[in-house]
Design goal:
By secondary structure, the protein is mainly α. 70% of the residues lie in helices and 0% in strands. α1 (13-39) runs antiparallel to α2 (46-67), α2 packs antiparallel against α4 (104-127) and α4 packs antiparallel against α5.
């Protein structure tokens, strides 16, 4: 999500762990959906969904801890983003009830809030596997991954 392993990145072990947990969780969701497709039934994939929820919860905790780190006070700059991406980031901040994106803390808090919505969508889908909860799950995953991509670019502006 935050591409902490890119050469030249200044990310911490904690940032890499939080990012990896997001990817672990999303891959487990995808594994569960694939199991359902293969089996032709919505009963398949329960174990993978439970694992996904745990990984994503760990990611939330990781991003919450990053928001409390010394690095979090660092200012960020949205200039690497094109106008549409800046608009998306601002809209996501509003949708996730955040005040805006001015510091690394804001990016981490947005990430945590976005992952919380993915966890809620996983839980809702696990409780009621229908087209509505499936669509919401895919929407929240896509939004969270795109937000992570933008957050990665913005965090690279920290002086």
């Amino acid at each position: 999500m935050f591409y902490g392993n890119i050469e030249g990145s200044r990310s911490s072990d904690a940032a890499r762990a939080a990012s990896a947990a997001v990817f672990d969780g999303v891959s487990e969701v995808m594994a569960a959906l694939a199991a359902m497709e293969r089996a032709g039934t919505t009963d398949a994939g329960s174990e993978a969904l439970a694992t996904a929820a745990q990984s994503l919860t760990e990611a939330r905790q990781g991003f919450a801890a990053l928001a409390d780190s010394d690095f979090a006070a660092s200012p960020v700059n949205l200039s690497p983003l094109d106008e549409a991406s800046q608009g998306f980031l601002v809209a996501e901040a509003e949708r996730l009830s955040a005040s805006g994106v001015q510091t690394a803390r804001d990016v981490f808090e947005l990430s945590e809030a976005s992952i919380a919505r993915v966890v809620a969508a996983v839980d809702a889908f696990n409780q009621n596997r229908d087209l509505g909860t499936y669509s919401t799950l895919r929407f929240e995953i896509a939004n969270s991954l795109f937000l992570g991509q933008l957050g990665s670019l913005v965090l690279q502006t920290v002086p």
